[in-house]
Design a protein that fits this description.
The protein is of the alpha+beta class. The chain folds into five domains: 2-92, GIY-YIG endonuclease, CATH 3.40.1440; 103-241, no CATH class; 255-369, Nucleotidyltransferase, domain 5, CATH 3.30.420; 380-558, UvrC, RNAse H endonuclease domain (Nucleotidyltransferase, domain 5), CATH 3.30.420; 564-614, 5' to 3' exonuclease, C-terminal subdomain (DNA polymerase, domain 1, Orthogonal Bundle), CATH 1.10.150.20. Helix content is 45%, strand content 17%. Strands 13, 14, 15, 16, 17, 18 and 19 form a seven-stranded mixed sheet that branches. It has a six-stranded mixed sheet with strand order 4-10-9-8-11-12. A hairpin with a 5-residue loop joins β1 and β2. The protein starts with 6 loop residues before the first helix and ends with a helix.
């Protein structure tokens, strides 16, 4: 096992908190982990073989180890999270926001801020609100800030010395900070503050402020301004009345994490509760990683660490299961928020009810994102993994088929299936010439010769394919399917062994009986006719067969269309067509005299045709 080559290095590791990184032979980071004591944690991997297929796959791939020492477990946790986001190791969980949900950016870093649509939150000194679900709500809200508060929408450099305001001022969508006699910088700053309260969801506070300012404007007989404030107040008040329907007055600020974990991946729904109301909902998604998915606690820990990297955590975070290193997570969140943060697993009452509601929403989102076809594919892959005792989920499957007629025009095809879906962009075609197979032919019967050619063709094609894969460094399949029985499977394994790839798993799928042959069992595996795993294998095999037959027909058609006239010097496609039209066939051209040929193609070409057929 690869990790045992690192025993000497592991024995010298410090017993301090830190982060360890595993690399594969190509130098890619495949796993990042944290530890209270680096030596103890990394040494535990030496005896971890057999604990689960995911760990087995990781242990086989490890080629190098690096560690980074930190002062505390909390620092190790933060560093682990940063490294996972930077390097995206395939054995770690990386949750992501749905990029269809935009944010609104109030550019408070500018002298005269604007409201813009942003696709992600940056640490740039601006104020962000969102995400907005659905996405069109972001632009509607941005338009509302222009109409209610007069926030500018232009890209102009504001100096206040513009001669006159633009059309936006005339249609009451901007308060014209570009003309200082109309709107001062302080007046624009008050509009920006109103916008900030509005985007932050503090609509009740904003409504109270607008009511006071409307009364002051009316008392000073600034009736136009009072009317604008009245309209803004009515809109904000409507938003207050229509704000979230889900409310629990006795619940304080908290975030509630609902989780749905399945074979296709995981969905986390986060309900953000502020002032007793669910004011926002955020969705995090991860697709199935290499090997079987790890536990709910690991997903929850990754979601908490990654979600609160850009935002401050509330006093309580409610989760369905307690994450590992919960105390370290609480300390990390508290350090970022500047106050105490608790991670809680509610057991009863309204808190548990809201958690169950978030989990039900996560289940609905999971079913919507990973539709029935996708879930069926992952179910079939999981069944296939169990039946064939594979170390990991066979997410990538390569399938080979040979097509020939009595040894002539032998071709092969390879199709690729990833996560149960055919990847046509990765299909490959192979030409197999008789010269390459001549060394394997015998003079027995016609049937024997045909089978031997089939075996040799399979060996050659598999060898050619994976020699290229080795040269390019991947991608290697999780499972290879051979269209055929024991003979074709043995030929494929001979090719793999010659390349040092005997660890790859291949199976043969015989037609008619639909039996699955493996290297390790003398008897074939018989799957029920309606078994999802068998149906998936049949679908992949049939696609490879269609692809090979189509290529074989193209080769035969191309061969049949070739004419002996192609070998005549000076006779190209145009003259060949003229000859065939005039004489009807190749035989007619062969029988033609010089006097008959010359009017059609000329004297020089006529002499060349006569010399060619005479030879």
């Amino acid at each position: 096992m690869a990790i045992h080559d690192l025993k000497t290095q592991i024995a010298r590791l410090p017993e301090q908190p830190g982060v360890y990184l595993y690399f594969n032979q190509a130098g890619d980071t495949v796993y990042v982990g944290k530890a209270r004591a680096l030596r103890d944690r990394v040494r535990s991997y030496l005896g971890a073989w057999g604990s689960n297929p995911r760990t087995n796959a990781l242990l086989e791939e490890i080629a190098r180890l690096e560690v980074i020492v930190t002062d505390s477990v909390m620092e190790a946790l933060a560093l682990e999270n940063n490294l996972i986001k930077q390097r995206s190791p395939k054995y770690n969980i990386l949750l992501r926001d749905d990029k269809n949900y935009p944010y609104l950016q109030l550019t408070t870093g500018e002298r005269f801020p604007r409201v813009l649509v942003a696709r992600r939150v940056e640490k740039d000194g601006h104020v962000y609100a969102g995400p907005f679900l659905p996405a069109r709500l972001a632009r509607r809200t941005m338009a509302l800030t222009h109409r209610l508060f007069g926030i500018r929408s232009c890209n102009e450099v504001i100096t206040g010395k513009r001669g006159r305001p633009c059309l936006e001022y005339d249609i009451h969508r901007c308060i014209a900070p570009c003309v200082d006699t109309i709107c001062s910088e302080a007046g624009y700053g008050r509009a920006v503050q109103d916008t900030r309260l509005f985007l932050a969801g503090r609509t009740e506070e904003l409504a109270g402020d607008l009511r006071i300012r409307m009364a002051e404007a009316a008392a000073a007989e600034r009736f136009e301004q009072a009317g604008q404030l009245r309209d803004a107040l009515r809109t904000v008040q409507t938003l207050v009345d229509r704000h979230q329907k889900m409310a629990a007055p006795d619940l304080s600020a908290r975030d509630v994490f609902g989780l749905k974990l399945g074979p296709a991946g995981a969905v986390v729904q986060i309900f953000q509760v502020r002032g007793g109301r669910v004011v926002d909902r955020v969705e995090l998604v991860t697709e199935a990683s290499e090997g079987p998915l790890i536990g709910e606690a690991d997903v929850v820990a990754a979601a908490i660490a990654q979600f609160y990297e850009e935002t401050s955590a509330p006093p309580e975070v409610h989760v369905p299961v307690a994450p590992d290193e919960a105390e370290a997570l609480e300390a990390l969140l508290a350090a970022r928020a500047g106050r105490r943060v608790r991670i809680v697993v509610p057991r009863r009452g309204e808190k548990r009810g809201l958690l169950d509601l978030a989990s039900r929403n996560a289940s609905l989102a999971y079913e919507g994102r990973f539709n029935a076809e996708t879930l069926g594919n992952y179910s079939a892959l999981e069944t296939l993994r169990a039946v064939l005792a594979l170390p990991a989920l066979p997410r990538r499957i390569d399938c080979f088929d040979i097509s020939t007629i009595q040894g002539s025009d032998t071709v092969a095809s390879m199709v690729v299936c990833v996560d149960g879906r055919m990847k046509k962009g990765e299909y490959r075609k192979f030409k197999v010439t008789s010269d390459e197979l001549r060394g394997t032919r015998t003079k027995d019967t016609e049937s024997t010769e045909r089978f031997l050619d089939d075996f040799a063709a399979m060996k050659q094609v598999v060898q050619r394919r994976y020699a290229r894969v080795v040269e390019q460094g991947g991608p290697f399949p999780d499972l290879i399917v051979i269209d055929g029985g024991k003979g074709q499977l043995s030929a494929a394994y001979e090719a793999l062994e010659s390349l040092g790839l005997a660890n790859l798993v291949a199976v043969g799928l015989a037609k008619k009986e639909e039996l699955v042959f493996t290297r390790d069992h003398s008897d074939p595996i018989v799957l029920p006719v309606d078994d999802p795993a068998l149906l998936l294998l049949q679908r992949i095999r049939d696609q490879a067969h269609r692809f090979a037959v189509t290529f074989h027909r193209q080769r035969r058609a191309k061969r049949d269309l070739r004419s002996e006239l192609d070998g005549v010097p000076g006779v190209g496609p145009r003259r060949r067509r003229q000859l065939l039209q005039r004489f009807g066939s190749l035989t007619g051209v062969r029988r033609a005299t010089r006097e008959e040929l010359e009017p059609v193609v000329g004297a020089k070409a006529a002499d060349a045709i006569l010399r060619f057929f005479a030879g």
